[in-house]
Amino acid sequence: MNEIAIDLKNVSADYENVRAIDNISLQVKKGEFLGIIGPNGGGKSTLLKVILGLHKPVKGTVKVLGKNIYKSEEKPIIGYVPQASTFDRKFPISVMDVILMARLGNGFSLFKKYKTEDKEIAINILEELELIDFRKRQIGQLSGGQLQRVLIARALAVQPELILLDEPTASVDSSSRSSIFEILKQLNEKITIVVVTHDLEAVSSYFKSLACMNFSLHYHGNPELTQNTIDKTYGCPVDLIAHGIPHRILKSHETNNKRGRKSA
Amino acid sequence: MLEAILNYNFMQNALFAALLSSVVCGLIGTIIIEKRLVMMSGGIAHSSFGGIGLGYFLGFEPIIGALIFSGVASVAVATIKRKTNTNTDTFIGILWSIGMALGIIFIAITPGYPPEITSYLFGDILTVSNTDILMMLILVTIVTFSIFSFFNYWKAYLFDETFSFVIGLKTAVMEYLMFLLIGLTVVVLIKVVGLILVIALLTAPPAIARLFTYNLKKMMALSVLLGALFGFFGLLLSYEFNIASGATIILLAGASYFVSIFIKSTLEKRKKKISFSQVNNQFKN
Question: What confidence tens digit (pLDDT) does each residue in B72-83 have?
Answer without folding.
Answer: 999 999 998 888
